[in-house]
Amino acid sequence: MHKNKSHSALDLKKSQVEVSLKQSVKNIDSYTHVRGESLYVDDVNVRQGTFHAVVFDSPKAHGKIKSIDYSKAEALDGVERIFTYKDIPGDNQIGGIIPDEPLFAEEEVHFWGMPIALIVAKTELIARQARRLVKIDIEELPVITTAKEAKEKGSFINAPRSFKLGNTDKEFKDCEYVFEGETFSNGQEQLYIEAQGSYAEPLENGNIKITSSTQGPTAVQKTAARVLGLSMHKIEVDVTRLGGGFGGKEDQATPWAVMAALATYHLNQSVKLILNRHDDLRMTGKRHPYESTYKIGFSKDLKILAYEVEFLQNSGAAADLSPAIAERTLFHSTNSYFVPHVKSTVYSCKTNLPPNTAFRGFGGPQGMFVIESAIAKAAHEIGVSAREIQEINLLQENDEFSYGQIAKQVEAQNSWHSAKDTFNLKELEKEVEEFNKSNKSLKKGLALMPITFGISFTNTQMNHARALVHIYQDGSVGISTAAVEMGQGVNTKILQIAAQVFSIDKSKVKIETTNTTRVANTSPSAASSTADLNGKATLKACEILLDRLKDVASEDLKVSKETIILKDEFVYVNAKKTDLNWEALIFKTMAKRVALTENAHYATPKIHFDKTKEKGHPFAYHVYGTAIVIATVDCLRGTYTFDTVKAIHDYGKSMSEGIDLGQAEGGLVQGMGWMTMEEIAYDINGRLLSNALSTYKVPDVFSAPKNIEILPLETQGNEMAILKSKAVGEPPLMYGIGAYFAIQNAIKAFNPNYKLKFHAPMTPEKVLMSLYSN
Ligand code: MTE
Ligand code: HPA
Ligand code: MOS
What we know:
This protein is α+β, with helices and mostly antiparallel strands. The chain has an 8-stranded mixed β-sheet, sandwiched between helices. Helix 10 (322-331) links the parallel strand 14 (304-316) and strand 15. The protein is globular. Mean pLDDT is 96; it is low at 1-17. Hypoxanthine (HPA) binds at residues 250, 321, 324, 328, 358, 362, 457-459, 462, 526-527.
């Protein structure tokens, strides 16, 4: 860890200011959240005569539509109209990366839950009743539910991709140990609290405004325009906040918004479409299940020399974001380790499940689980602890990733050793060992989980943002960006930036809704990059305005601009407070007819990636950290609890410690849920069985670790991160992978004959089987 250098008195004062600034920031949404006053799509002001819609979806996973009879549904009192693909004036196409997904099915259905029609009625209840009256006749076709089967049948979304470093074929020959194996990690339901929804309203001249629960307002605008055959300027999309997105609303908020807009287009009336939980679970995609095979080779002293891995991604029935997610799996296939010879390949396999989509980590977690499994297996076979292998293979400064980027400001070893020292790993290991010696039916297991996660959209083109900052003539400030607040606290961070640059009270700053007419052509709020991209644009706009204000102050006070600073709402000259305060300065600026508005653009510098070579420098920087997970398994029941998760996390120089800790804890528990208890199940006909919260279990306060301690790694931060405060949204999820191996180590302590399996989630049922099998 870095030791504090001795500070000068001035430095000390400055750092105290920074500390108090950080600690005093409360999430600006907390007040309305706890009072139940925060607004979501379902809370929009509904225009008189608004219609309500439900989606009629396929009751089969694959087949030819022979006939559909809507007559009874249409005849129901209160039903206004039923829309199908025939009512689409533009393109019946919503695929973003690959145009392979119709908004409404035409002749065939490709997954259970695929939208076929939109039923619009006076009330949602009537629309639901009407849905039951639709008769559909489907000639069933063979259903594929697993990636392996899709691969065998040659059913793919696109061509496979491979990353290569060194020469694995050659290197395996020189390895002392070589192991092969296979792994499976299941999907995961995003389970945002606010289900998917939208509200479309007609404006004049055929313009339409859509309020949507989306992470990607521009994607909604663009797709609505495409489907309706309109120009983008005729569609306005507005987002106040989301009740969670977790990736599930990066792409898949779009169809519901477009459907509502389609109905509004035809009816010239507002239409509200909010999925209920059942509909949402059935119709939307989840984290991709992966089936993977690997081969890993070591030197005598346990250095990983070569690693080959093949990922079969279960993409579902259409591409959605699968190609981008597959790419990120390759980027993270070696996690925090340096491997000199790598060959990783991913197949996006087309199946008859709902198109799987983004989920916190975006394919990265799936990639990391495989190499952690390979290490666990190798350790077991060789007879060492996985910790030994992990530790000696951690990334170091200037190591090369398989995609060509050279690792800089690496904190893999730093966070690992810091975790070991800070939490006294030796003592923890001893406690576990002693506990296991003196207990028969309860066993503990401990695992370490290092993480390395690349920050930036893997698609270089997407790494840009804009901010529109108004200083109103009374000195209050309004900021519009592309950032969508979904609980991650990005609005608070953006507000902090403006308040800090202008040195004004936070109550003077307002973050406006995210709206395509104020900030256009935006990337979704995703890739953990929202605060970096939109925050940097905001910083730039505020700094330009500040410079302008200083011009005015310098003219007014007849001093040179360089002597001026703004501090605590006053102008200072040569560090001496003047009588000119913020409000008066703004008033003067206005009177001089100087613009109080600025629109700034930020595009991440230095990043690039060449897909023809699969090499480049795709990430602005990486986030690092190491977690220690301890589980206790009840060996009579197969149940388990988590005693503790202790992590050292690289926040850079966090600008909002409370928010960032919330992100780290939330991500961790979400990752643990994926690895241990959340079990998505489809039957062989492609019907979702885990279709309610009674059959799909996510971590609650009782199953979360009894103790979570996540401490910041002291680092210098990174210039590419907003105010050196590193992105935090996704990386901590991957600490959850440690939970799988902590449980596995406990099983090993009970059952020495246990043959390691790498099939996540490690549910109590699987634990019980493992405890008593060979
Ligand atoms: N935290 C909350 N509370 N709700 C969310 O929906 N989404 C996660 C993460 N943390 C999410 C969240 C995902 S998938 C991403 S990519 C980031 O937040 C997006 O926000 P950021 O870019 O501001 O970190
Ligand atoms: N992360 C999240 N969302 C994305 C990405 C990414 O890297 N690329 C495209 N959409
Ligand atoms: Mo997050 S999976 O990038 O929305």
